[in-house]
Specification:
The two termini are 32 Å apart. Helix content is 42%, strand content 19%. With 375 residues, it is of the alpha/beta class. The longest helix is centred in the middle third of the chain and has 17 residues. A 9-stranded mixed beta sheet has the order 7-8-6-5-4-3-2-1-9, sandwiched between helices.
Length: 375
């Protein structure tokens, strides 16, 4: 199996917390789509020997692309790749880009999953983080997508927002559940250096939510979603049975994927390739019919650490026999030795040969994972 990721680095406005590569300068979108198809042609052999089962258009905000450009892109990809075995085709959208006409056109192109950045159903919280939609627009957008025939809808939520209370967060989760979406991704607000949010905190304009409040919000999220029939299959991801994100799951089980576009990265099972975070540089290279990625050859211990990190984040956990198979018995023995204190503290479970985070361990996952990495 293999997947394809398409990065669309355009946004109408920048959220104050976002550190992903994106730009509001949309004048180059048509050139950019042509460049994407040029890169696809140049790099098609990288995944030519594996059936492509997932396709994901992320960003940025892919829904800023007009239907005509999405159509040109999707049709062009079909000319380059064999997509006959595609199981999941996802596009990320913003609520205020959604219309019945737009979603119907996407469905007719074969898109069968929509991931929407909602973040909150509280208008005050949305304004605080510079989101350009309202709660009403988000609710209407979810229903429009479902009415247009795409039932597999995922929404993103963020907790720990400036001024957010536990009661407000409960309302957000309950509203999400009431919309009958199949997948919810929920993240604790992160203050990333270089973002407006980081600067605002340093200037005292916003106050970071306390650890105690974030823990309470996380516990509320997990409890309510489990009661509503969602599986907590990755630290930040919840799905109704049968609706786990197949594309994102491929990242967590090390399935090869091809990343196209500025700032996109790829993985061939051993090494990674990175495109530059520059639309100008990207378009220029493809206009000259050349690729622009750099290759990162991973050392064995880097692969080990990635495997520890991504597998331990999932409900399937980290099988120590897989670590022994990939990196040797010493690596497996060292891992178990480092894990023992966390097992004793009730932060990790060891079921046979598989390590999984306990509910208490999830809230300390960053520390636990760092400790289990190779010295």
């Amino acid at each position: 199996m293999a997947g394809i990721y398409i990065h669309i680095p355009y946004c109408k406005s920048k959220c104050i917390y976002c550190d992903f590569y994106s730009t509001p300068q949309v004048a180059t979108m048509e050139q950019y789509v042509h460049s994407l198809l040029g890169e696809a042609n140049l790099r098609q052999e990288e995944i030519a020997h594996s059936p492509i089962t997932t396709l994901y258009m992320g960003g940025g905000t892919p829904s800023v692309l007009a239907v005509e450009l999405v159509t040109e892109l999707v049709n062009g990809l079909h000319e380059v790749f064999d997509l006959s075995r595609l199981e999941e085709f996802t596009i990320e959208v913003n609520p205020d880009d959604v219309s019945s006409k737009y979603i119907t056109a996407l469905r007719e192109l074969g898109i069968n999953r929509v991931s929407m950045g909602v973040q909150s159903f509280n208008d005050n919280e949305l304004r605080a983080i510079n989101r350009r939609h309202t709660s009403r627009q988000a609710i209407d957008a979810v229903r429009a997508i479902q009415d247009a025939g795409i039932g597999n809808v995922s929404i993103d939520l963020i907790y720990g927002l400036p001024g957010q209370s536990l009661d407000s967060w409960k309302n957000n989760v309950e509203q999400a559940i009431s919309l009958n979406v199949r997948h919810i991704s929920a993240y604790c607000l992160s203050y990333e250096r270089g973002t407006r949010l980081w600067v605002m905190r340093e200037q005292g304009k916003v106050q970071e939510a306390s650890d105690e409040l974030c823990v309470a919000m996380h516990n509320t999220l997990v409890s309510k979603l489990r009661q509503a029939g969602f599986e907590h299959y990755e630290i930040s991801n919840f799905a109704k049975p049968g609706y786990r994100s197949r594309h994102n799951s491929s990242y967590w089980n090390f399935t090869p994927y091809l990343g196209l576009g500025a700032a996109a990265h790829s993985f061939d099972g051993t090494n990674r390739r990175f495109n530059p975070s520059s639309i100008k540089q990207y378009i220029k290279a493809l206009s000259e019919n050349r690729t622009v990625f750099t290759i990162e050859e991973l050392e064995w211990w880097e692969r080990h650490d990635e495997e520890v990190m991504v597998r331990l984040r999932t409900s399937d956990g980290l099988d120590t026999t897989v670590i022994a198979k990939h990196y040797g018995n010493n690596a497996s023995d060292t891992l178990l030795r480092k894990a023992q204190p966390f097992i004793n503290q009730g932060l990790l479970n060891l079921n046979g040969t598989t390590l999984t985070l306990t509910p208490a361990g999830v809230m300390m996952s960053d520390h636990i994972i760092r400790t289990l990495m190779w010295d």
